[in-house]
Design a protein that fits this description.
- About 45% of the residues lie in helices and about 15% in strands.
- The protein has about 1150 residues and is α/β, with parallel strands linked by helices.
- Helix 22 crosses helix 28 and helix 39 crosses helix 42.
Length: about 1150
């Protein structure tokens, strides 16, 4: 090796290099290189051997390395662990003839990962970015820098060699990393004897000759190379759902389709972790079959007992036959049987076995259990809260009916405690729901509850199945066919409400308080009685006599009943004159009996109606039956008889005037019935024109006419009976129509199978009916897709009911390419009807809030949160939009769309490799029309198994948007909802091009990540503090604990145990029961009170709650950016902003 001809000075000698006493190895190397560079004419050549390398290590030497001559950088793997294996070769292992050993291969793989990890851990800051770019510039622009990796074995040596003239070498333990050169307890020695240095150079040359070229610059360039938005989006999904892709499809014993089998797999995963799952697939996707597969595994594989609870209709028409067909064993009970048998469970005469015998409970149409104050809900809790844990499977296509509280109630059947979802970032489920409701009080969508619902629910829509399971097949009645769904067409049927009963609506609206001022309504409605304008406005005094008690002992259930009656009068009036007349007649009879009793010195209290809400009746038919039973009486001397009598007589006069106006009306002069006959005639004519053969024609004219009320169903049936005889257009329906309501008992199954033998029967039954008039008893669970039409005769007060009805015909296995959803609307009075109903609902809810009642009416939530969205849904139906039926009303319940997108794209190996190889900190940008600029980040905290998403909106000038806290303090606006973040980051299409990422937006990304990272750290830190995670006890539970701790010494060792069992934020249901054991609700000695508390704890299975597990501490450096997406306004939007 030639000496530098200009070298005249002996080089600086560095004999020892370590990080002791504040010194750095880097300082020694820099001193040597600086000395040589300044003393020699030509820059020295350098050779470096190291196992590990990172930009921070380069940064320590960069000032000198950028000025030296040629550099050879040799990377290689070193053994990571001390070899503990015996040095005696096992004779059974063949000796290798060539190639590196498995240990070397493993080390090289680890070495490659470590290089990638060092790059990924660089961080996403301006400083880190500049350091990485400086490194790449050195590697690319320096005329003679070369990097190789030694892959023939381990690279044990680490050395920094000045090759020019064999000047010297610093060798030892230091890797070319920041830690190796500045922080670790390293030992390095300098050697300057030419013979020694030459031997080192020879060693290096030998390794170098065997090494392979390595693109270190390319490794780091990948951070800021332009990435496609879809790749970055997939990486965000992979961080959350990648683990779910393994073995995501399992075999099926019941012949399920691929999407159903995938749903079962997800349900099993959720059950394993939560002991409960909400199967919320849209109507018509086969939830029964998903549950059936779970039942098969429980009963046939694990030999466990299963209980199925469902509506009586589905017990007889669906479940018994389903279990028989698939040879499955399970106990099947209706809701009513559940309530009536719960107290005798385990007895020989009970339909229920010992509750501890059941390992799985399946609830069909589980939304019927959303009100946890009902007896059926209480019975279910007794089953699932028993000593033996059970898997709970909840089936419902409409888990949200009236409010997001519906979801909370369903989840709490298996969540057990308030912090059950701390593992998905929800330390308090109650607070989580409260925040979601407060964020958007009128919303019925669950987008702000995504994290919990994704952990508990299986939810797919028709659109999801169409998009992701094309070509999937199913066997229907022995015929293999492709999974498909008909197209839904909504048709509005306008009718003249005023033409039915001219002027009647104005009189009814007045009687229901439409013109009473808000102040007067607010002052009286909580009591259930409106005393303004007696004789013009119904007081409802007959149903709220307790408001006239002299001792003030008002009964809240009476106010609830009065509210139900007001709403029911309005809805029955819109439904049919007949239903309205029947209701008025019952009310008049009830008023007469009440006045007769009052004259005799008694007050009828109607005790049968006390438990109407508790029983869980949602059909007001049952309520009106109860009106006829005056089973409770009290002495009238305790009442203001004069005021009570005057109010009741005034109400009877109003009702009598109504009756006089409607008593002569029948279907022959009803314009609404006339419109119905016309629609049936149109259906019959279209089926004749479009049908191919007798059977197809018959199927195309099959129609379900739905009404909320049995009285209206009777009225329609009478009209049809005449019309099929007198109107030749309906001749096809002659002798082929039937009526079904809740009171028809066993005849329903025969009618259903006679109406749709191919889909609701075995296929062998005779086809008997083409027209069914029914209440909502047929709105759930029955397979009527042989039919093509639904007519909703009443205004869709609850659009979710229409979704359920629609699901009867829009199902897998439909015989039709199109199905029709017809809805009646009063053309002139719709706004007035809805406005009046909204006013009644609001006042009822305000009344509930005033007295602290949990549920005011069946189907009415106590907080005003769903009225606006319900009105929007009704307007969509009126506009003949089918989106409500296509989406099912609550599409954003789980991450199935995201999982399937990821799984579909990852079937392409190159896509999967490209996406998973993206460096941490990789980003992309996309334009979005009419959007404000924003950034979405996907982050990791240490080795935690779940990512954190943050969405940071920007101002037009790309500064971070600032909002004010409740205290008025300015803070950066940061959205934490997973669903909102993923929606914002979604390019929508794999071909979406990357937008130009300007330098200004790139700088904004650094600034936004700083605040997002701090927010993640704050969120994490709050969850590391056990004190903050400790649940806040409701006042009633604190009171109960105080009683036990102060007066429970007689319990002995059980005193502390009982107190501990009470220290949990139990649901309202448990709080209500505990409150009932305490004064002033229940008086007694302190010992008696403690004994009652202990009884409640035992009966309701209260156990000592497991404390929430805090997260391990993490600092800011433990939070890493995986990837990010910039949303860039379109040029038009940006220019508009500039003009502003």
């Amino acid at each position: 090796m030639c000496r530098n001809p200009n070298q005249q000075v002996k080089p600086l000698v560095v004999d020892f290099a370590s990080a002791l006493k504040g010194y750095r190895v880097a300082s020694a190397i820099n001193s040597l290189l600086s000395y040589l560079r300044t003393k020699w004419v030509s820059p020295p050549a350098l050779a470096i051997a190291t196992a590990y390398f990172n930009p921070a290590g380069f940064g320590l030497l960069a000032d000198e390395l950028e000025k030296v001559g040629p550099v050879r950088l040799l990377l290689g793997a070193e053994p990571t662990d001390v070899d503990q294996r015996s040095r005696v070769r096992p004779l059974g292992r063949r000796q290798r003839r060539r190639g590196p050993s498995p240990e070397v291969v493993q080390a090289l793989e680890g070495h490659a990962r470590s290089l990638v990890e060092d790059r990924d851990l660089l961080g996403f800051t301006l400083e880190a970015d500049m350091a990485a770019r400086r490194l790449v510039k050195w590697l690319d622009d320096h005329p003679s820098v070369e990097v190789r990796r030694y892959e023939q074995g381990f690279l044990h040596g680490k050395a920094f060699i000045v090759e020019t003239d064999a000047t010297g070498v610093i060798a030892g333990s230091s890797n070319f990393t920041y830690a190796g050169l500045a922080r670790n307890n390293e030992l390095n020695l300098g050697h300057y004897q030419p013979s020694t240095v030459n031997q080192v150079i020879d060693w290096f040359d030998e390794q170098w000759g065997k090494a392979t070229s390595y693109d270190l610059a390319g490794l780091y360039k990948a951070r800021w190379e332009p990435h496609q938005p879809w790749d970055v989006y997939l990486r965000m999904l992979h961080e959350n759902y990648g683990a779910d892709l393994e073995d995501a499809t399992v075999g099926s014993k019941l012949g399920l389709t691929a999407f159903q089998a995938d749903g079962v797999w997800r349900a099993k995963r959720i059950l394993e972790r939560r002991n409960g799952v909400l199967i919320a697939d849209e109507v018509g996707l086969g939830k029964t079959y998903l549950a059936g597969e779970l039942i098969y595994e429980a009963t046939m594989v694990r030999r466990q007992k299963v209980l199925i609870i469902c509506p009586a209709m589905l017990r007889d028409s669906t479940w018994i036959g389903f279990l028989r067909h698939h040879n499955l064993r399970a106990d099947v009970l209706s809701y009513e049987e559940l309530v009536s048998n719960i107290d005798t469970a385990g007895n020989r005469t009970s339909a229920l076995q010992d509750l501890d015998e059941y390992a799985m409970v399946v609830i069909d149409e589980a939304h019927a259990f959303r009100n946890d104050t009902t007896r059926r809900a209480e019975a279910l809790h007794r089953i699932v809260d028993s000593r033996v844990p059970k898997d709970l499977v909840l089936l419902t296509a409409t888990p949200v009916n009236n409010s997001l509280e519906d979801l909370y109630s369903l989840i709490m059947y298996f969540a057990r405690n308030d912090y059950a979802f701390a593992d998905v970032g929800v330390p308090s489920l109650r607070q989580y729901f409260n925040r979601a409701i407060a964020t958007d009080p009128d919303s019925l969508t669950a987008q702000h509850l995504f994290d919990v619902l994704d952990a508990t629910a299986v939810r797919r829509t028709r659109r999801f199945v169409k998009n992701h399971y094309r070509g999937d097949t199913i066997r229907v009645n022995g015929i293999e066919q492709e999974v498909s769904f008909p197209t839904c067409e909504v048709r509005r049927i306008d009718y003249d409400l005023a033409g039915v009963l001219p002027g009647m609506f104005d009189a009814l609206a007045t009687s229901l308080g439409a013109h009473v001022t808000d102040d007067v309504m607010a002052a009286t409605v909580a009591a259930g009685v409106i005393l303004a304008d007696i004789g013009q406005v119904l007081t409802m005094a007959r149903y709220v006599p307790s408001q006239f008690r002299l001792d003030g002992g008002a009964e809240q259930y009476e106010a609830q009943n009065a509210g139900l009656l007001r709403s029911a009068l309005l809805k029955r009036f819109e439904s049919s004159a007949h239903a309205f007349r029947r209701t008025v007649e019952k009310m008049i009879e009830s008023h007469d009996r009440f006045l007769h009793a009052l004259e005799a010195g008694y007050v009828l209290t109607g005790e049968n109606l006390r438990d109407f809400v508790a029983i869980g009746m949602e059909d007001t038919e049952d309520f009106f039956i109860g009106l006829e039973d005056d089973d409770g009486t009290l002495d009238a001397s305790n009442y203001d008889v004069s005021a009570l009598c005057g109010a009741v007589e005034a109400d009877r006069g109003i009702l009598a005037s109504f009756h006089e106006r409607v008593r002569h009306l029948d279907h022959t002069t009803d314009p609404k019935i006339e419109r119905l006959i016309g629609e049936l005639a149109t259906i019959a004519a279209e089926s004749n024109a479009e049908g191919i053969g007798e059977e197809d024609t018959r199927n195309k004219r099959k129609v379900l006419v739905f009404t909320y009320f049995a009285d209206t169903a009777d009225y329609i049936q009478a009209a049809i009976k005449d019309a099929v005889i007198t109107d030749g257009r309906l001749q096809a329906y002659r002798d082929r129509y039937a009526r079904i309501s809740g009171s028809d008992g066993g005849d329903r199954t025969e009618v259903i199978s006679g109406f749709a033998p191919r889909t609701a029967g075995s296929g062998s039954e005779e086809d008997l009916y083409d027209l069914i008039i029914t209440t909502d008893v047929l709105a759930e669970g029955v397979n009527l897709q042989q039919a093509r039409h639904i007519i909703n005769y009443d205004l869709p007060w609850n659009p979710m009911k229409l979704v359920q009805r629609h699901g009867r015909i829009d199902r897998i296995g439909s015989l039709h390419k199109r199905v029709f959803m017809r809805c009646f609307f009063p053309d002139e009075d719709l706004d007035r009807l809805l406005g009046l109903e909204e006013r009644l609902q609001r006042k009822l809810k305000q009344a509930a809030a005033a007295v602290g009642v949990g549920i005011v009416l069946p189907g009415v939530d106590p907080v005003e949160r769903s009225i606006t969205e319900t009105r929007e849904m009704i307007d969509r139906i009126k506009r003949e939009e089918a989106t409500l039926f296509e989406e099912g009303g609550s599409a954003a319940l789980s991450g199935e769309e995201y999982r399937r997108r990821l799984a579909t794209d990852f079937k392409n190996t190159s896509t999967k490799t490209r996406v998973t190889a993206l460096p941490w900190g990789a980003g992309s940008a996309m334009t979005r029309q009419n959007a404000d600029p924003a950034l979405v980040f996907c982050a990791r905290v240490g080795d935690h198994d779940k990512p954190f998403y943050r969405y940071v909106p920007l101002n037009k000038d790309l500064t971070i948007r600032i909002v004010r806290t409740a205290e008025g303090d300015p803070v950066a606006e940061i959205i934490r909802d997973t669903l909102a973040c993923l929606n914002q980051a979604d390019p929508g299409d794999p071909t979406t091009p990357a937008a130009t990422l300007t330098e200004q937006m790139y700088q904004a990304a650094f600034e936004a990540w700083t605040v997002a990272r701090a927010d993640v750290h704050q969120d994490w830190s709050l969850r590391t503090d056990p004190g903050r995670l400790a649940p806040s006890l409701p006042k009633v539970m604190r009171t109960a604990v105080e009683y036990v701790e102060k007066h429970g010494a007689f319990l002995g060792d059980r005193q502390d145990d009982l107190a501990a069992r009470l220290k949990a934020p139990y649901t309202t249901r448990i709080q209500r029961v505990v409150r009932g054991a305490l004064p002033p609700v229940n008086l007694g000695t302190p010992r008696e009170i403690v004994e009652r508390i202990a009884t409640v704890a035992d009966e309701y299975g209260l156990s000592i709650p497991e404390p929430p597990v805090p997260l391990p501490p993490a600092n800011l450096d433990d939070i890493y950016l995986v990837c990010w997406m910039a949303i860039v306004p379109t040029p038009e939007a940006a220019s508009d902003a500039n003009e502003v």
